[in-house]
TrEMBL record:
The keyword Hydrolase applies. It comes from the Bacteria. It comes from Pseudomonas fluorescens. InterPro entries: His_Pase_superF_clade-1, His_PPase_superfam, Mito_Ser/Thr_phosphatase. Keywords: Hydrolase. This is Histidine phosphatase family protein. GO terms for molecular function: hydrolase activity. The keyword Hydrolase applies. It holds the Pfam family His_Phos_1.
Length: 236
């Protein structure tokens, strides 16, 4: 069977003006991941990422570790199907309707680093509305549209793959969640309960034969656990 490794990006710059930049911890996570994979001798036939900077930077930091010990470094291909959903656009579109019930939501979102737990609660409420489809907005990618985009990316991989290949996809938590939803048929809300648990640079393994795909492992981050450095285990 073939293997697709879904790899979440390293820690991004939560609370900064530009989230789409790896933090120093995110860079270190990606380097640790790459060293771990290289030590295992796990080479890839193809490597892909979305076109977000945090995804591509995670890939390059990880793959550099292959070259450091003389392993071949595969070319990084870009497919925007594996981009994360646009959280900022979803918040902008759905927050006004939430404010009557959550009058402090705007302040919490503007000061997210000071209100992490409350930010997560408000964000989860917004995502719940997005998943329902009831609040779909013209010009905003819907949950069903997002799932369709991700599914199309997976189908392109399968169409070009043979059953012996190992393929890495450097992507984001929401994209991994959409694939879990598609492959396991779990409800979207349940999939998002898992989303909140996905660790930065975790490995999620899919096995495939032809067009048949199964989930083999979820959210493995032993490469970080082995370092016994808790600050490297992050979720944003």
């Amino acid at each position: 069977m073939g293997s697709i490794y879904l790899i979440r990006h390293g820690q991004a710059s939560f609370g900064a003006d530009d989230y789409d930049v790896l933090s120093p911890i995110g860079v270190r996570q990606a380097q640790v991941l790459g060293s771990h994979l290289a030590e295992l001798g796990l080479s890839f036939d193809r490597c892909l990422s979305g076109d977000l900077r945090r995804q591509q930077h995670t890939a390059t930091c990880a793959l550099e570790q292959f070259g450091a010990i003389g392993m071949p470094v595969p070319l990084l291909e870009v497919d925007s199907a594996f981009n994360e959903f646009d959280a900022d656009a979803i918040i902008r579109a759905l927050l006004p309707g939430l404010l009557p019930d959550e009058p402090e939501a705007l302040n919490i979102l503007r000061n997210a680093t000071q209100h992490r737990a409350e930010f997560q609660r408000i964000f989860a409420l917004i995502i719940e509305r997005w998943l329902s489809g009831t609040y779909d907005t013209p010009g905003l990618e819907s949950w069903l549209g997002f799932v369709g985009r991700v599914q199309a990316g997976l189908q392109r991989i399968l169409e070009q793959a043979d059953n012996t290949q190992k393929i890495a996809v450097f992507t984001s938590g929401g994209t991994i969640t959409a694939l879990l939803h598609l492959i396991t048929q779990m409800p979207a809300a349940q999939a998002f309960e898992l989303n909140w648990q996905i660790v930065n640079t975790s490995l999620n393994l899919l096995k495939f034969r032809g067009r048949e795909v199964a989930l083999a492992s979820f959210n493995s981050h032993v490469h970080l656990q082995l370092l016994k450095t808790p600050e490297l285990i992050t979720f944003r």
